[in-house]
């Protein structure tokens, strides 16, 4: 018997919980911080990517994670033209306003690491190359080397 009665929901819950657990390994045992980190970083990425690349990334996310990724999206405003690390991190930092203090660079690095464990390497290389150099430094090459080959996403 499944937890929700629908295998699709069970799979997305399992995958999302796994991603949150991996983020908590980096940031501490606070699921709220992990969830806000994941959503904030994904939305910051989404808003800075060309539309087709943003959609391709979204397709590779677990269903539940995809929901936060697309939340509050305004595709007609894509992509945001910010080029600095500070401009990239600022909306992510706002995610923690009602939570404990969080190092936003560490949260961003953690989400980049988790994406690298679960999303197609080729897709991530395209995403990373679309980002300003300052932001790419938070997503080191060794993270991408751990990414699954094409067709092996979670």
Outline the low-pLDDT stretches. none
Helix content: 55-70%
Count of helical stretches: 9
- Helix-strand makeup class: mainly alpha
| Average pLDDT over all residues | 92
CATH class: Mainly Alpha
Biggest beta sheet attributes: none
CATH topology: Globin-like
Number of strands: 0
Indicate the radius of gyration in whole angstroms: 15 Å
- The CATH architecture name reads Orthogonal Bundle
The number of domains is 1
Element order: H for helix, E for strand: HHHHHHHHH
Shape, per Cα inertia axes: globular
> What separation lies between the terminal Cα atoms?
22 Å
Strand proportion, as a percent range, falls in under 5%
Task: Summarize the topology.
Elements: H1 7-27, H2 31-48, H3 51-59, H4 63-70, H5 85-94, H6 104-118, H7 121-129, H8 133-136, H9 141-145
Helix pairs in contact: 1-2, 1-6, 2-3, 2-4, 2-5, 2-6, 3-7
Explain how this protein is built.
With 154 residues, this protein is mainly alpha-helical. It has one domain: Orthogonal Bundle (Globin-like), CATH 1.10.490.110. 64% of the residues lie in helices and 0% in strands. It has nine helices and no strands. Helix 1 packs across helix 6, helix 2 crosses helix 4 and helix 2 crosses helix 5. The radius of gyration is 15 Å and the shape is globular. The protein starts with 6 loop residues before the first helix and ends in a 9-residue tail after the last helix. The model has no long low-confidence stretch (mean pLDDT 92).
